[in-house]
Design goal:
By secondary structure, this protein is of the alpha+beta class. It is built from one helix and five strands. The chain starts with 14 loop residues before the first strand and ends with a strand.
Length: about 60
């Protein structure tokens, strides 16, 4: 059985300022690398689960 990578890297209730490495579709929206994103950790974890860990270039608490 293959081991599943850890996807809950970010605290769910904390807001993060995020930079993406490529365009990402998440829910009804399309996020671009140039966008200034502020995302809850719970949504960020879900985005990583759907699109892969390499989608996030940086994520800092604010």
């Amino acid at each position: 059985m293959t081991e599943r990578p850890e996807t809950n890297l970010y605290e769910p209730e904390v807001r993060y300022r995020v930079r993406l490495s490529r365009p990402v579709r998440f829910g009804a929206f399309r996020y671009l690398p140039r966008d200034d994103l502020r995302i809850l950790g719970s949504a960020l974890n879900a985005m990583i689960e759907e699109n892969g860990a390499d989608v996030v270039t940086s994520a800092d608490k604010f």
